[in-house]
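Next comes this protein.

***
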Amino acid sequence: MMTRRGFTLPVILTGFLLLIVGFFYVRSTKQVEKSDGKENVVSELPLHGSNSDTPSEKADIPAVSIVAQGLEVPWGLVFLPESGMLVTERKGRVRFISKNGELKDDPVITISAVKQIGEGGLHGIALHPDFHDNKFVYLYYTYSGSEGNTLNRVVRYTYDGNSMRDEKIIVDAIPGNSNHDGGRIKFGPDNMLYITTGDAQNPSHAQDKNSLAGKILRVTDEGKPAPGNPFGNRAYTYGHRNPQGIVWDKDGNLWETEHGPSGFETGNDEFNKIEIGKNYGWPEIRGKQTKEGMIAPIIESGRADTWAPAGISYLNDSFYFAGLRGQALYEVENAINSPKLVTHFKGEFGRLREVIIGSDGMLYITTSNRDGRGIPKSGDDKILRINPEKL
């Protein structure tokens, strides 16, 4: 009896201690919030164009940190050259987050013309390549046409550090609807503005080279067709259903994420390499289907899975894109030679919409749990900072 008791007690104590250590390890690496929502809050944001963290400092950054919370369907993010970031909310507001992570109560601007219907609303945001000098900010939003029809447009504002003024329409009358409005805008390495547009729930738009819908558009900073466009208009590529993410890799190649069919035909979401003038198949082909003159995706989700992919960024030879219905951060490794899809944070933060890279080498992602299709958690919607070295 004494021998059994003498043996069992240390084993029990050791097991208990291992259980406690394991609990706190999981908590420290996976859990973002305490009950008061204050754990791992970012104390300082990087400046656009700076590189504030050395590799050793990055090792000390938590796997996940809260940048901001209490947002309402954040859609697009940009870092400002000297102070914090701007974030769009789908209901029509642009919000400012200071360098120390404080979300300013008063919006930078509330755009009264924004029509929030279904997936429509205020979407993408981009800074002009010469923002330091001209202070131009570009926005993409849904609005009502003169006949009450739903349309989208890209506009330009001047940002004075507190508010936005002097709206100028850059591209107008992009077909819209309650769904499939696209909406991502980014300036490319060529200083041209790239715009993703959905098919506005009319698949025939995607194959019509003269329609602004179902395309990736490429325009000058004034909205004119960019020099070298393949069809003499604003279209750069066509045959898209609802693209919501674009990014360039280190070699200047353009990549895109795109929503596949929904309803009974759900699935077949796409990750595409974009080439000028090419037809990406919608609605003629989907998934792994092929047809002469049409381009199939590099990776697609298949019929058994749905990513509902949105924003995408590129870092250290990997692509990272947000999943709305997939409720995950997806990573594509070795995209050109042997693409591999890796899933991170599945179901942990709910619906994810945007991914951008900070000058600190961290990923900044947004939740989208207040968009009518998610289950809001305490503090939603949030902007989270992800340390890619700890994925």
About this structure: Residues 114 and 167 are 13 Å apart (CA to CA). The mean pLDDT is 90. The first helix runs from residue 2 to 30. The chain is about 10% helix and 35% strand.
